[in-house]
Design a protein that fits this description.
The complex is a heterodimer. Chain A is mostly helical. Chain A has two domains: 89 residues, Orthogonal Bundle (Helix Hairpins); 37 residues. Helix content of chain A is 80%, strand content 0%. Chain A is elongated. By secondary structure, chain B is an all-alpha fold. Chain B has one domain. Chain B has four helices and no strands. The longest helix of chain B is centred in the middle third of the chain and has 31 residues. Chain B is elongated. The mean pLDDT of chain B is 84. Classes of the chains: A mainly alpha, B mainly alpha.
Chain lengths: 128, 123
């Protein structure tokens, strides 16, 4: 039984890593949810394997809970799936982030300058 | 060889097939293109894999009261998996994440167009 457990655990691990790669790559949120569903079922098989190895019966309630609740997450996210822009899953490059930061800094300076002008004009009105 | 050894060997075979299905699903999810392809690959360990693991566990425990709960677990899994994958595929299709060029037959688009035509005022 021991080598069966070892071989099976290795296969479950390889499958889980591949599903995790899919979760990381996406490209859409639904692909990621399918990957997480696979990881949930791998978890069920793993808990069953552990229970079979040591003939433990406490894990059966965990199996029932996982089988009942495991689908709620993907169901909820699938219901609220939205149309995403083409490059929504893309990670921005360092140059893009820097350009955005600079644009934000310029806009903040502009806003501060305008605020100061408005405050100055109010002071003038109050003074006159 | 007594019957306990036979059931242990059968349980080990069930777990090995479940593990193989998991690896197959992982390879499929990595290689198949698109959302529907990964759903197709993902359904293998979720249906047959989990049921085989539960059969293996039942063969190992060999007690009726535990086997009854395990049948319930398998039933829950077979009830919930199609629901979630149906919703994922439906949401993916309606938000344009399924490439129509990959589909050989697309009966849903015909139905959607028919219902859109019916909603238009006839006069």
């Amino acid at each position: 039984m021991t080598w069966v457990v070892v071989v099976c655990a290795i296969m479950l691990g390889v499958g889980a890593i591949m599903a995790l790669i899919r979760v990381e790559k996406g490209p859409s949120v639904l692909d990621r949810m399918v990957g997480l569903d696979v990881i949930t079922s791998i978890l069920i098989i793993g808990v069953a394997l552990e229970a079979a190895w040591g003939r433990r019966t406490e894990a059966i309630s965990i199996l029932a809970a996982l089988a009942l609740v495991g689908f709620v997450g993907s169901l909820t996210i699938a219901r609220f799936a939205a149309v995403e822009p083409e490059d929504a899953g893309r990670i921005k490059t360092a140059e893009e982030v820097r350009a955005e930061d600079e644009a934000r800094a310029v806009a903040e300076d502009e806003a501060a300058r305008l605020e100061a002008e408005i405050a100055a004009s109010r002071d003038d009105e109050a003074g006159s | 060889m007594n019957w306990e050894q036979v059931t242990d060997i059968a349980a080990g075979a069930c777990f090995l097939i479940a593990g193989f299905l998991t690896v197959a699903a992982g390879i499929g999810m990595k290689r198949f293109p698109g959302l529907l392809g990964s759903i197709h690959a993902a359904a293998k360990p979720q249906g047959l894999g989990v049921v085989l693991a539960l059969v293996g566990l039942a063969l190992r425990l060999r007690e009726v009261r535990y086997v009854a709960v395990l049948i319930l677990v398998g039933l829950f899994q077979l009830l919930t998996t199609p629901v979630s994958f149906h919703m994922v595929a439906r949401g993916g299709y309606r938000t344009g994440k399924v490439n129509p060029d990959d589909l050989v037959v697309d009966e849903l688009i015909v139905d959607l167009q028919d219902s859109a035509d019916e909603e238009l005022p006839s006069d």
